[in-house]
Amino acid sequence: MPADLVFAPPSGNRTLFLSGPPGSGKTQAAVQRLLRLLELGIPAEQILVLVPQRTLAGPYYEALESAQAPPGGQVDVATIGGLARRTLDLFWPLVAQPAGFAQPDRPPRFLTLETAQYTLDRVAEPFIAGGAFDGITISRARLVSQIVDNLNKAAAVGLAPHEIGARLKGAWGGESARLRIYDQVQALALAFRQACLAHNLLDWSLQIDTFWRYLLPLPQLRRYLLGGYRHLIVDNTEEDIPAAHELLRTWLPLCESALVVCDTDGGYRVFLGADPDGALALGEVCRERVAFERSHVTSPEVQALGVELSTPLGSAPPPQQADARAALVLPTESLRFHPQMLDWVADQVSRLVMEDGLPPGEVAVLAPFLSDALRFGLTERLNRYGLPVRTHRPSRQLREEPAARCLLTLARLAHPAWRRPPPPSDVAHALALAIDGLDPVRARLLTDIVYRVQQGEPRLSPFYDLIPETQERISYVLGGRYDELWRWMQDYIGGSAGSGLKGSEGLDLFLSRAFGEVLSQAGFGFRRNYDAGAVAANLIESVRKFRQGIPAPAEGSGEPNLGLEYVDMVERGVVAAQYVSTWQIHPENAILLVPAYTFLMMNQAVTVQFWLDAGSVAWFERIYQPLTQPYVLRREWETGRLWTDEDEVRVREQAMSRLVLGLSRRCRQRIYLAYSELNERGYEQQGPLLQAVQRMLRRREVGAR
User: Fold this and answer.
1) 3-state secondary structure of 607
2) What is the Cα–Cα distance from 356 to 353, expressed in whole angstroms?
3) pTM score > 0.90 for this model?
4) In CA terms, which of 166, 275, 386, 597 is 20 to 30 Å from 268?
5) What is the per-residue pLDDT across 637-661, written as a single tens digit (0 to 9) for each?
């Protein structure tokens, strides 16, 4: 590690641009630089660490926790969105009226992704009722999330909201009916923006827009930022948005010191607005440039494998000294069916852990998309070997998480006044997940006997009232655990009714108590379930932010039951917001099962990776999103230019190349390639990733002759 990165004098506009591949020590150098600034007596409040998303700030938080904290202040670690929110909250009186907010004398309400979807869903109601989107097949939840996505992408690159429709229409070369849909997309986006302005609601896009257009030009804000934060450390700039890069271009020439870190060949979040080219251009603003070349993570064989597989079709890979084939493990026999592939993966993982002594946390099992069937099938197989598994799927609907459905079903049972009785299948599922050892068959039998709906209100009866024959079929041990849960819920219902509490005031409290007092205790299903614990924590935080973010009702309109509103929102299919806890790779003794892009944004390295469904075209294709287009809503795209098949193939090849190279640079020793002739639906598959492997093997065979 060059000493001048850490020990250089932190004054005189000493700005350094550090680039290199993942695993080359860039973040480590940045962390050491941060600690060195504190050792030199730089006030902590003058230091800002800027990252593109909160999950990438882990190394800095860990370093600050272990270091001797300086008195009188703390280092700020923020994203561009967090910085915008913080400064908008502070300078709100100066920008509220110029930005067009209808109630400038009232404080702002900042929306999460979930509360933004909730608000937009209500705005969309008259559009949908009038048949606005009848010409396209898409769920209401996905419709809402893609409108939010359009606004976010526009704000990230500095486009005005009214430019969205023109860009989408100008690039569309298909049937003309889609043009009318894009007009409706534009109208709904503007209606949502007006609703936000009317109620002082700021979703992420409006936060960035207001910060950039109205707050940043103010002298007061510039004095606060440029004068307050004199020392910058900016990491993973290749994953950040153009608005962040523009701010840095203004900031870097004026600060006392800065270290800007950029991953070469990064930019995995292009579909979310990331601008890797803009990040590299920041090197022109810095006084010095340093490049790290050598990886401290991957072996030469894994590096060679990554280069070979990421080489575009029709191009020859650069010569490699190491043998890429040595880092690749393939099935020794043909696997025709999808379950056979899962069996092979489970067998190989168990051998690595049980025979070779590899810690489970050093194994990552990756797929282009992680379906419920794939996650369940592989988790069950690994659990048979006694191997713990941890999964995480961002941008997933809350209702699709079994633990979330369990908790919200219990909430509906514990709040009978809501008159939202869950269906018996949900009750059986909740009991099976909540009570350790209760299988689905006995859970359904128990539900059929103890669950009733009376005058629209759900009711549960105790196990001890059952006839002895039924008690024996379910077992007294499991029945005792059910009675413990039943008594706790009865106490909660009686306590809430007696104290006058309303469900709208206590849903997050109910969830917290249910998890802490019952579900996480011995004999209940959340005790050793890492995923369920993470989902419970996220759900509690989600409810709390929902309660805080929804505006107060108009005078005389009555108080809304926010607990019930939240449950209904989840049932409509809201996509979960991002929560830092679920991105952490801990606990270290669990195998990680995640989508490939999620693993990249964890920015962690493991010893062994398994790439599932290597024959699937999903490694190459983009998710179908008919109401948005991430590449058209970029600054460099020319409005009115058609998006062609050639453009689509080009960006797909670039994305797969980045993906494969990024994964290989986060693997220390070996990559296991898992594939079957038929996918889980029974169709043959021969995708581009598998073809790249076959081309590499043929080249090796020819070279060996």
Assistant:
1) strand
2) 6
3) no
4) 166
5) 988 899 999 999 998 988 899 999 9
